[in-house]
Amino acid sequence: MKRRVIAFLCAAVLVVLAGVAAAETQPETLELQILATSDVHGQFSAWDYSLNQSNTAGSLTQIASAIRELRTENTLLIDGGDTIQGNSNDIFLEDALHPMAAAMNAMDYDVWVTGNHEYNYGVDTLKKVMNTQKAKVLVGNVYEPDGTALADGYTIIEKSGVKIGVIGMVSPLIARWDAANLAGYTVTDPVEETRKIIDSIQDETDVLIAVVHMGVEIEHDVPHTGASEIAMECPELDLIVAAHTHTVVEGEEVNGVLIVENKDAGRSLSQVKLTLEKNQDGWTVASRSSVSYDISAYPEDEELAALLSDYDQRAKEDAVSVVGKLVGGDLVSENEIADIPTALIQDTPMMDFMNQVFLYYSGADVSAVALLSRDAGLREGDIPKCSLSHMYKFSNTLYTLQMTGAQLKTYMEWNAKFYNQYQPGDLTVSFNPDVNTYNYDMFAGVNYEVNIANPVGSRIENLTWPDGTPVKPEDVFTIAVTNYRANSHLLVPGVVFAEDDLPVLLEADIRPDIGYIRDMLCDYIVHVKNGTITPEVDNNWKITGNDWDEALHDQAVQLLADGILTIPQAKDGWLQNLCSITEEDVRQAAGK
Question: 61 with 44: CB under 8 angstroms?
Fold first, then answer.
């Protein structure tokens, strides 16, 4: 009997020891979840205030529903900026609490990093929004005139014993885009700043995350403006949450660093899961996974929608307030082809109207303006404020520059690369996939033709002043452009002009008493035109060189209208009309 008891006890001890050994070989694990948004651009509710209609493609109220479903106790909720600008949110800038901050506070965001558009309204407005955020505000590469940091560059957050270092940076190009607002401030290199922070905190952290308001690749050929460069210089990072380019990056690995990015306007939510293992040295990342959620599949969170209802009502009332009347027709005719905006292939009363506003408030000789919304336009009748916001949706201001005729020609040739070169057999005009619509300007104050049969650099022909005299290289004049065009392209060496051939900035932020360009559109209607405008087009420019067969062109238009042919566009829908419909396309379609 004793032998049996001893044998039993020995067996039990062996089982316990085996369990201890197994526990020692199977380290403790934990799953850390990061949920990330960015570029929500004022879309706090499922309503487009510029169009004054429901928009369930994405919003913070819908994202809140997704977060309720996905959140765990070990979840970080992060936003990468471009938060307060857009969707007619300018009306809330004087409020003690902006609706975007109110929503993010209610959703318990852990970290918020400023985007480039946060600086559109001046640093004082930004600071007010920063001070109302319950989330930790990060921006590690912007410094006050006295040398102090605008905000902390990093924070360390602990979840179930895991110490997570989160670093925040904004694109250094804000020093160009909002040069006037950042006068006296210093914007430093985000790659170098990230490297410094990692060197100082990596021994204190188990996980390192960078949240950067920068796209994956470099921008405007300026070094250290891309998240991929941070990954190359900082391989210690486990994750980079990129932003700014409004493109879904579900999970791209660069130099061993996982990078994710979201669409704009709350249309997507990035989910990253890090599986951590604990050993004698602490926690390490054993594996990673990431996915992007389509927010259109989620309903609005009723509790958050109720919290924001007063903001929603104010925005809707403001959107429909009538500022004037359009008589005598629409500002833009219907598109001949649905996916090719008329305003991009011929002169229209809408673009002439905006150029009139530019010329009136600037007093310049020439002006240039881009189409910012492909479906912008005013219908005959009352003009609600929301239509003007949609026509010019960004918070840009007006600059005047001094140029010569030679510089204007250079600028216009650079601009004309927007079009793909016409080839024999083409039946439609198509657009360069490397140039966004908002980077194509249409000019007033001069007459010109764009010969798209010619290669880039030799397309502008018959460039004359309104009286028909040629624009000479030595002519000197003033031109009105947006602050974005001036600071991103025209005043930057190597983009349009060589360093020794830059235009001269004469005046920045014209008429601050009126405000932004869209405020000027409203002021022009109310105070200059006494509340009434009519469609006026001078047809000062046109496309030439597209010598197609008109009958086949008409056939292509019908096939496109019937859905038998389609206009090529990028997968993300951001770029459209990437190549022309050809005679061969028509022949193949007709033969089906």
Answer: yes
CB atoms within 10 A of CB 252: 17
Q: Which residue has the tokens 């025209």?
A: 490
Among residues 173, 243, 163, 162, which one has the least CA distance to residue 210? 243
How many Å is the Cα radius of gyration of the chain? Answer: 28
Identify which has the larger pLDDT, 201 or 180. Answer: 201
| Cα separation, 143 vs 131, whole angstroms | 17
Q: Which element (helix H / strand E) includes 61?
A: helix 60-70
Count of residues for the chain? 592
Domains of the chain as residue ranges with CATH? 28-314 (3.60.21.10), 321-548 (3.90.780.10)
Helical spans, DSSP H, in 363-403: 385-391
- For residue 221, give Cα distances in angstroms to 225, 368, 370, 387: 8, 23, 22, 35
pLDDT (tens digit per residue) in 39-57: 999 999 999 887 788 999 9
Among 587, 581, 557, residue whose Cα is nearest residue 567: 581
Residue 14 pLDDT > 60 = no
The H-assigned helical ranges of 343-399 are 349-362, 385-391
Query: What mean pLDDT is predicted for residues 550-560?
Result: 95
Whether 230 contacts 212, CB under 8 Å:
yes
* Those residues with Cβ within 8 angstroms of residue 526's Cβ, 6 or more apart along the chain or in another chain: 323, 324
Per-residue pLDDT tens digits for 507-535:
988 987 787 898 899 999 999 999 999 99
pTM, rounded to two decimals: 0.75
E strand spans, 397-535: 398-404, 441-444, 447-451, 460-464, 476-482, 504-507, 532-533
Ramachandran sector of residue 144 (left: φ over 0; alpha: ψ -120 to 50; beta: rest) = beta
Q: Which amino acid belongs to residue 373?
A: S
- The helix/strand/coil state of 404 is strand
Distance of alpha carbon 165 from alpha carbon 154, whole angstroms: 7
In the block, which residue shows the tokens 């303006």?
369
pLDDT value of residue 575: 66
Average the pLDDT over each of 30-34, 180-184, 475-479, 566-570 and give the range with the smallest value: 566-570
Give pLDDT, residue 20.
47
Listed in sequence order, the residues at least 6 apart from 313 whose beta carbon sits closer than 8 Å to its beta carbon are none
- The total of other beta-carbon atoms located within 10 Å of residue 15's CB is 10
Whole-angstrom distance, CA of residue 535 vs CA of residue 349: 5
Which of the 8 DSSP states describes residue 358?
H
Tell me the average pLDDT across 52-75: 96
467: exposed, middle or buried (Cβ count in 10 Å: 0-12, 13-18, 19+)? exposed
pLDDT at 278 over 90: yes
Which residue's entry shows tokens 């928009």? 55
